[in-house]
Amino acid sequence: MKLDERETIRFVPNEFYIDTGRHLFASIANYAMITIAGEEYRYPIASTVIRDGFFKHYFDVEDEPIGNIERLELYDVNGGLLGETVGGVIEKDDDGWSIAIKLFVILEETEMEGGALNG
């Protein structure tokens, strides 16, 4: 069946699809390069929390570098840059510093022209 060029198709994802996408996005990241006082340090993801429309990656800073956090770059397992930030949430606990970045996955309803799906 061909769609009339003037028709609009609407796709509204259900919560399962959105949640599955959130988990997929959260699983892609592997490590971060964190710049502290001009020096770069590589840290693996220590843990990930997924809930309520966002996910948060935690990185444990074990060697306790001194200085300001200037940059954080997030990478996949192949070394591909996924994104960067100029800060994060810093949390101190008994085991040292934890740096957390909070990411939101937002799916928006959009309209496509009917002809876009025609073969």
Describe the structure.
The protein has a 4-stranded antiparallel sheet. The chain has a 4-stranded antiparallel sheet with strand order 4-5-9-8, with helices on one face. With 119 residues, it is mainly beta. The protein contains 1 helix and 10 strands, in the order E-H-E-E-E-E-E-E-E-E-E. The longest helix has 14 residues, at 15-28. The model is unreliable at 115-119 (pLDDT under 50). The chain has one domain (8-117). It has one helix at residues 15-28, and strands at 8-10, 29-36, 39-44, 47-51, 54-61, 69-76, 81-85, 89-93, 96-104, 111-113. It starts with 7 loop residues before the first strand and ends in a 6-residue tail after the last strand.
Key phrases:
119 residues, single chain, 1 helix, four-stranded antiparallel sheet
What is the fold's blueprint, element by element?
Layout lengths: L7 E3 L4 H14 E8 L2 E6 L2 E5 L2 E8 L7 E8 L4 E5 L3 E5 L2 E9 L6 E3 L6
Antiparallel strand pairs: 1-10, 2-3, 2-6, 4-5, 5-9, 6-7, 8-9
Task: Tell me the structural class.
Answer: mainly beta
Strand order of the largest sheet: 3-2-6-7
Strand content: over 45%
**Biggest sheet layout:** 4 strands, antiparallel
Helix content: 10-25%
Form type: elongated
Give the structure's gist in a few sentences.
With about 120 residues, the chain is mainly β.
